[in-house]
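Q: Structure tokens for this one, please.
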Amino acid sequence: MLQEFFKRYVRLKGLSERTVGHYVTGINSINVILEKYNFPIRNIFEAKTVSDLESIKMFLLSNAEFQEKNRIGHNMYSVSFRHFCEFVCGDYEFFNHNIQQMDIVAEKPTIMTITTTAYHRNQIIVDQSLEGAGYCCEHDAEHKTFIAQSTNHAYMEGHHLIPMKYQDAFNCSIDVYANIVCLCPICHKLLHYGQAKDKKYVAEELYEKRHERLINSGIDLSKRDFLHLVI
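A: Here is the predicted structure, written as tokens:
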């Protein structure tokens, strides 16, 4: 799917069909190298995140065969890859002003089966934690949301202060009331995706509120160790 969107993007940038073809050919040539060396991502056009592209970039910088191919090709392949990276994450102005022009009919996506392993989370405990907080954001009770159909209360989300991915570091469960806070969607997403300085401010406040309860549940972390896990 990204291949067709990339071609549309390049055309809208005013480049010729010949150039579009060169870029696609260049990227597909890189895909051949990725396949040859069993790189985890075999097709650049199937990259899912910016991190995927960054890992491909680091691989190409260290791969002698690519470097020689790129030299012989007068940097055609690295230029193609650079333009694709700009399409994915480096052209805010274009998408801010031209997103509607990217509307095209795309092929139906393929079905994929994903198997993951994760610790079980008890939704009952999460729901009860929201009740215990009175459906108020525990960072700022003034934060308002809509009324949820399922509860008839303000919509809030349960957040594990210490993420469940760190369960192996503890001899007791961290899927416990003391480790679950009630947050509005904005504060919840902040702790997952915000900048470190903003996350730190909220995390420190919640740590102070929950420190004693965490100890009572067998989770005894200094503020420094806590912040190391959550920031």
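A few notes: The chain is about 55% helix and 5% strand. The two ends are 34 Å apart (CA to CA).
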